[in-house]
Design brief:
The complex is a heterodimer of chains A (about 250) and B (about 220). Chain A has about 250 residues and is an all-alpha fold. Chain A contains 10 helices and no strands. Chain A starts with 11 loop residues before the first helix and ends with a helix. Chain B has about 220 residues and is an all-alpha fold. Classes of the chains: A mainly alpha (about 250), B mainly alpha (about 220).
């Protein structure tokens, strides 16, 4: 029966909503089911066909949301050739591998670079439009990439496994992580210029600022949450203000 | 502005994980979008930068917080309130909103976890429509959570902010609060540096710091901004 199912291309929104029912136990499972449903031809979507199609699904599924199209493309390509068991097994492996690649390339590379670049642009120019152009370009590239990966998966099938060994992926991840680090350092300078002017700022701001930076460093390396960070900054300012008042002006 | 920000909050809530992942849930992007509509100020940019730094503590500290909603609430509250004292209170309120919003995200995920039995039954029965309805409902909950969080944060914040300012004036701690806002970026930046610091990329951080120092010097000496 399964071999006779007619396939259709998955609608784009199904690939964008794989995390819609995300939960810690089953992760993206329901999103995957909904995406898989999109691959059955509408005329053949009867309960038996649906139950058979979804029976082979793992009970929990997860991969990088930007790269999920490749998993579905490869799976659908193999199923069209009648290789159902191989398709189910390979999509599980592919999902885990792409999850790792995506985390390295996007979550710790591309995304921080775009976000920090956007803040730096806004902070330096004071104009939101430059940042918005960067964001729109990013979203356009993302939309193109998601669809393109799905189509590549459909076209190449299990050949994509060779592409995953391409060392360029690792190099790109490193380039973006490098850029994020440079932007972080640049942000320090611009932010300090915007927050405190030593030529006109109050004298006792300088020790308070240095102390706050010390507390921030402590918070960062001790792994404090934002609430404890805020309490740390508030108490530091209170102590430095009290000390400045006592030593500089007397009481 | 509250209804517009809440609508944007719903979209940000969707983008947090349910639909898209287009970075809109990051405070930098959500805030920039709102600033483009409502008008930007130097303090608003600093505020977004501080939230971006605090957001970067998530991978190190763990936990779930809703920085996108916090950014929208802070930017809108900041429009009517000029001065460092008001921004210090807005920053504190935004940290509260991020924490409560994080709790709401966990709540939605808990509802999703409880719906899994119903999905299993639908899978066995081959009921595609029911699976999709559950999926859409959970996506809708994320939008509702985002919009509701921003709306609630703004209504409560607008009530609390003027009273907080009056209280600070009566207690004579305005200068102290203003100082907290002035030094907040100094305290927040090490949190960001911690995430991107890597022994293998010292040169990159050094280059950034050198470039940042030049920008700082040019900005201060030139009196830019």
């Amino acid at each position: 029966m399964r071999r006779e199912l007619r396939r259709s291309k998955i609608a784009w929104w199904r690939l964008w909503a794989v995390e819609g029912s995300f939960n810690p136990q089953r992760l993206q499972w329901v999103g995957w089911l909904v995406a898989r449903l999109g691959s059955i031809d509408a005329k053949e979507r009867n309960p038996q066909a649906v139950a058979e199609l979804l029976a082979a699904e793992e009970t929990a599924a997860n991969t990088h949301p930007y790269l999920v199209g490749l998993v579905f493309g490869v799976r659908q390509s193999l199923e069209e050739r009648g290789e159902w068991e191989k398709a189910a097994r390979l999509s599980g492996v592919l999902a885990r591998v792409l999850g790792g690649i995506g985390d390295r390339l996007f979550w710790s590379g591309v995304v921080p670079t775009v976000v920090l670049g956007l803040v730096l642009l806004g902070l330096s120019t004071g104009d939101p439009w430059g940042g918005l152009v960067v964001w729109v370009l990013f979203v356009t590239a993302l939309a193109w990439m998601r669809w393109r990966l799905y189509e590549e998966g459909l076209r190449r099938g299990d050949e994509v496994l060779g592409l995953l060994e391409d060392p360029r992926v690792q190099r790109w991840a490193e380039h973006f992580r490098w850029s994020a680090t440079v932007l972080t350092g640049s942000l320090v300078g611009v932010a300090l210029w915007r927050s405190y002017d030593p030529l006109t700022g109050a004298v006792f701001v300088a020790p308070a600022a240095v102390a706050a930076a010390g507390v921030g460093t402590l918070a960062a390396w001790r792994g404090w949450g934002p609430e404890r960070w805020l309490l740390g900054v508030i108490s530091t300012v209170w102590v430095v203000s009290a000390l400045s008042h006592f030593f500089v002006w007397g009481d | 502005m509250i209804s517009f920000a809440s609508g944007l909050g719903a979209v940000v809530g969707l983008d947090r994980s349910a639909f898209g992942h287009t970075l809109l849930a990051h405070p930098a992007v959500a805030g920039t979008l709102l600033l483009a509509v409502s008008g930007a100020s130097p303090d608003a940019w600093l505020f977004l930068m501080v939230l971006t730094c605090l957001e970067s503590s998530n991978p190190v500290v763990g936990g779930v917080r809703d920085w996108g909603s916090a950014a929208l609430v802070g930017v809108v509250l900041g429009q009517g309130a000029a001065g460092a004292t008001a921004w210090a209170l807005i920053l504190m309120w935004s940290v509260v909103v991020a924490g409560v919003g994080g709790g709401a995200i966990l709540g939605v995920r808990s509802v999703a976890a409880r719906s899994m039995r119903a999905v299993e039954v639908a899978v066995e029965a081959g009921d595609a429509g029911r699976i999709e309805r559950i999926h859409f409902f959970l996506i809708f909950l994320d939008a509702l959570r985002g919009g509701g969080m921003v709306g609630l944060g703004l209504v409560t914040g607008r009530f609390l902010l003027p009273r907080g300012l009056d209280l600070a004036a009566a207690a004579g701690v305005e200068g102290w609060l203003a100082l907290i806002w002035t030094v907040a970026p100094w305290g927040a930046l090490p949190v960001l540096c911690r995430l991107h610091w890597d022994r293998t990329r010292r040169v990159a951080m050094g280059m950034g710091l050198a470039g940042g120092f030049v920008l700082w010097a040019v900005g201060v000496m030139g009196g830019i901004g």
